[in-house]
């Protein structure tokens, strides 16, 4: 299902993220400009419901503060110098191991706020970009992740207590002077791990609110 970057009505403009609906039945609405935000939101929810969404989340307008806060998305950063040491090793994902990696990703990220479902096309793109990894120690799979340039996109551990080793291994492939990542504030274990390894919140990216069906 394709996203709609510009969903336009007489009440305003919004972006609709519909890609998750076939997998999680969740729709994400970003209000860009609205003369009548409540009416625009109702139209967005109605449209998303019509194409299969059962849960609705929105951001982009102060009006949304009347709904329960779902999560706040933060950017966190730390210097790449003085990286924590680890004996964990990275193995790039290949076509023959892609499905195993994708299944781990979708299983582990299913309960994380605003996490995107990893489609086959998404996984193939990461393989082409060369930023998808397995993390092993002495033949044991510790976790997986996505990292490249100056950013870590995902850190996923599969062995309890291995989060630091997975993150440290992913940090080793970054370039530049600053490492950055994005995290939902209700993912408290991840936030605690990042802070323990020297990451600090540098900016608030967005606040997402849970929208009920009876928005009219």
Task: Provide an overview of this structure.
The structure is a single chain. The protein is α+β, with helices and mostly antiparallel strands. It has 2 domains: 4-66, no CATH class; 75-205, Gcn5-related N-acetyltransferase (GNAT) (Aminopeptidase, 3-Layer(aba) Sandwich), CATH 3.40.630. Helix content is 27%, strand content 38%. The chain is built from 6 helices and 11 strands. It has helices at residues 21-24, 37-50, 98-109, 120-129, 163-171, 188-196, and strands at 4-9, 12-17, 26-34, 55-59, 69-79, 89-92, 132-137, 140-148, 151-157, 178-184, 200-211. An 11-stranded mixed β-sheet has the order 1-2-3-4-11-5-10-9-8-7-6, with helices on both faces. β7 and β8 form a beta hairpin. The longest helix is centred in the N-terminal third of the chain and has 14 residues, at 37-50. The two termini are 26 Å apart. The model has no long low-confidence stretch (mean pLDDT 94).
